[in-house]
Design a protein that fits this description.
The structure holds two protein chains of two kinds. Chain A is mainly α. Chain A has one domain. Chain A is globular, with a radius of gyration of 18 Å. Helix content of chain A is 80%, strand content 0%. Chain B has two domains: 100 residues, no CATH class; 49 residues, no CATH class. In chain B, α1 crosses α4 and α3 packs across α4. The two termini of chain B are 40 Å apart. The chains are: A mainly alpha, B mainly alpha. At the A-B interface, α1, α2, α3, α4 and α5 of A face α1, α3, α4, α5 and α6 of B.
Amino acid sequence: MIYLQLFLSYLKIGFFGFGGGYAMLSLIQNEMVTRHGWMTATELADIVAVSQMTPGPIAINCATYVGYTVTGNVWGSLLTTFAVSLPPLTLMVLITVFYNRLKNNGYMQGAMKWMKPMICGMIGAAALLFLNGETFIDWKSYLIFVLCFAATWFKVDSILLICLSAVAGILLYI
Amino acid sequence: MKIIIQLFWAFFKIGAFTFGSGYAMIPMIEKEVVDRKKWFDKEEFYDQFALASSAPGPFALNTAVFVGYKMAGWWGALVAVLGAVIPSFVIILVIAIYLTEFSDNPYVIAAFKGIRPAVIALIAVPFINMLKRLPWYFMILGCVVAAVICYLGVSPIWFILAGVLIGVVLTFYEKPEEGGAK
């Protein structure tokens, strides 16, 4: 029952998705690529690129797209998008209600402090898993990578960069 | 009822017209709920926002929840989330269907060959920026975590749980007399 598995996977991704979209990527990779083999790392990299370029939060875009890719229909998209919306609709509501008690809670601050290196590692893992023979096919790939790395470092807009690298891809590989 | 429609519309606009990570949406959300609608004062907004960014799940939706909940309770939260989700859902779905149709197109294939290294750069830069701001022992830990997740296929969930556990236990032993409250 792929729908149930997909829902449970995305529920995990949502509830452990601390630290924003890029950290969540590592969870998506682990569930979709490593555990279930529903897609390749390269397919996921493409989904990330498209999610970045389209309006809306990257985490939602990714969820909708992944759901469609895994099942090939709209129901998969609905399911993953619903699953990723559940932590905000449950946990975040509780957090809002108990806001005053949580605001200066030492345990929560301690947990957040130790979660930081973990979240950082998750983002690193996302980059590492995408770095393979399928994404880096020849020297041109390395050139694009180095240029984009430098441009991102100096805060060039990421949507512009993806558009430019798409044009570069068409010019270099067609 | 009026506030419900306003909430929906405010977050619909945010979902439809902002790009990238949830953090990129903060200026737009702030403009909408602090400056225009005056639902929050600035300080309150940033306090709540700090909490929303430490909760799991899409950050933009966590923000939608705290704004919606304050304005109209649980229904407000639900409506704000729907407002933020619907435009992204529809747009990306259309693109997903369209791109799947054209996945054999040589131009699409060539474009993605160019895009993939760019995506890795887009993820690598925030990783290094975040790493730089950590103390040295956390830098090492961050790199080890990255390698173990990627090369051994260990689920990141274990590292999140470990982080929470270590953080809570250390807080307990560091400040037992205060019962964890600072």
